[in-house]
Amino acid sequence: MRLAPLERADLVRCAELEKILFPGEDPWSVQAFQFELENGNFYLGAHVEPAGLVGYAGMSELGSPGHMECEIHTIGVDPGFQGQGIGRAMLVALLDRADTMNAPVFLEVRTDNVPAISLYKKHGFEQIGLRRRYYQPSGADAYTMARPGVTQ
Ligand SMILES: CC(C)(COP(=O)(O)OP(=O)(O)OC[C@H]1O[C@@H](n2cnc3c(N)ncnc32)[C@H](O)[C@@H]1OP(=O)(O)O)[C@@H](O)C(=O)NCCC(=O)NCCS
C-alpha cells in the first residue's frame, strides 16, 4: 500500500467510493473533492496494485503559524480493503502532519459509527460534544471529537 497526495485523476474514484461509503449522507461529488483540493486542504490517497485508489483522507489546516488547528473532513476505505490497516495508516499520516504544527485536530463522526469512533479513540481523540441532526439528509447525530496538539 502506498500513500500519496490526492490528485485530480483520483477524484472520480473518490466520488464513486463516497456513494458506497456514505449512501444516506449526501456523498461528495468530484466537484466537492476538487473544491477541497483547490482550497489547499491536505489530502492523501491510498493506492494498492493492481486495484488502484482504495482510500482517501483529508483535513483543513486553519490559523497562523504557532496557532494552527486541523479539522479532518473525511476518511474512507473501499469496503473490499477495510480491516487491513489502511484507515489507520491514513489517519496516522494526517496526525503526523498536524503534530509538526503542534495543532489540535477536530472531527465529526456519526454517533453510531463504531469502527470510526474506535479508530479515533485509539489515536488520542476524545468526545467533546454532540451535534444533533448534524448529518443530512439522514438527520443522524454526530459526536465532535478532538485530539490535543502535541508539545514538541
Ligand atoms: C472507518 C474506516 C475509515 C476505517 O478504515 P479501515 O482501513 O477499515 O480500518 P483499519 O483496518 O485501519 O483499522 C483501524 C482501527 O479501526 C477500528 N476498526 C476498523 N474496523 C472496525 C470494525 N469493523 N469494528 C470496530 N472497529 C473497527 C479498530 O479500532 C481498528 O484498530 P485494530 O485493528 O487495532 O482493531 C472504514 O471503516 C471506512 O471507510 N468506513 C466508512 C467511511 C467512514 O465511516 N468514515 C469515517 C467518517 S467520520
Question: What layout of secondary structure does this protein have?
Answer:
Blueprint: E1 2-5, H1 11-21, H2 30-38, E2 42-48, E3 52-64, E4 67-77, H3 86-100, E5 105-110, H4 114-122, E6 126-131, E7 142-147
This protein binds coenzyme A.
Structure description:
The protein has one domain: Aminopeptidase (3-Layer(aba) Sandwich). The protein starts with a strand and ends in a 5-residue tail after the last strand. It is α+β, with helices and mostly antiparallel strands. It is 29% helix and 35% strand. The protein has a seven-stranded mixed β-sheet with strand order 1-2-3-4-5-7-6, sandwiched between helices. The model has no long low-confidence stretch (mean pLDDT 96). The protein contains four helices and seven strands, in the order βααβββαβαββ.
Count of discrete structural domains: 1
Structural class designation: alpha+beta
Strand order of the largest sheet: 1-2-3-4-5-7-6
Question: Which blocks of ≥5 consecutive residues have pLDDT under 50?
Answer: none
Q: What's the architecture, going by CATH?
A: 3-Layer(aba) Sandwich
CATH superfamily (homologous) name:
Gcn5-related N-acetyltransferase (GNAT)
Pfam families: Acetyltransf_1 (PF00583)
Catalytic activity: N-terminal L-alanyl-[ribosomal protein bS18] + acetyl-CoA = N-terminal N(alpha)-acetyl-L-alanyl-[ribosomal protein bS18] + CoA + H(+)
Main location: cytoplasm
Function: Acetylates the N-terminal alanine of ribosomal protein bS18.
